[in-house]
Amino acid sequence: MGTQQFSETMPLIDPFIFDNSSGIGQQYFGNATHRETRVDAILVGQNDTIDHVFNLFFDVAGLTVPLGSVNIPAGSGYLGLPMIDVLAAILPVGSAGLALPSGTDFLASLDVAMTGSSTLSVLQLGGTL
User: Fold this and answer.
1) Given the DSSP bridges, would you call strands 84-85 and 27-29 parallel, antiparallel or unpaired?
2) Are 54 and 86 in contact (CB under 8 A)?
3) Is residue 82 classed exposed, middle or buried when 0-12, 13-18 and 19+ CB atoms within 10 A define those classes?
4) In 3D, which of 93, 98, 91 has the Cα closest to residue 40?
5) Is the pLDDT of residue 112 over 70?
6) Class of domain 15-128
7) Where do the domains of the chain lie?
8) Which of 3, 38, 78, 102 is most deeply buried (CB count within 10 A of its CB)?
9) What is the pTM (predicted TM-score) of this model?
10) Closest CA to 99 of 107, 109, 87
11) Dihedral sign computed on CA atoms, order 89, 67, 99, 123
12) Cβ atoms 74, 46 nearer than 8 A
């Protein structure tokens, strides 16, 4: 009792895939719900032969706010390499996820488009409050 900051009522697992057709423009991912949401992790992996910079943004009521950028090394999440937790890399050390108001979306962009048939996978983990 009292050891958790939030109590999640419904799990939230939301995948999204960037491919060559996604280009470098901002793409919505995550799920704007009618309830507050806690996001515990945003895991990113990619199978391209080059590193990619993943840029993360909030969209709150049409206002886009940059959160930060993280380098995603080539092959992260594949061939035994771990996926990168972008949220953990952006938030201060010791943070335990984000509590978001209802209707909040995430957006992401890449500095360079995925090459050929390569993909970058995004997995948002959390729950509704």
Assistant:
1) unpaired
2) yes
3) exposed
4) 98
5) yes
6) mainly beta
7) 15-128
8) 38
9) 0.87
10) 87
11) negative
12) yes
Q: How far is CA 98 from CA 13, 37, 116, 126, in A?
A: 15, 8, 34, 9
- Take residue 111 and report the two structure tokens written for it: 């500095």
- For the four alpha carbons of 69, 27, 38 and 11, in that order, the dihedral sign comes to negative
Helices (H), the chain: 86-90
User: What are the structure tokens assigned to 127, written together?
Assistant: 């729950």
Q: What is the pLDDT of residues 50-108, one digit of tens each?
A: 999 999 998 888 899 999 999 999 999 998 899 999 999 999 988 878 888 888 889 99
End-to-end, the C-alpha distance of the chain in Å comes to: 17
40: left (phi over 0), alpha (psi -120 to 50) or beta: alpha
Cα 12 to Cα 15, 24, 41, 61, distances in angstroms:
10, 26, 11, 21
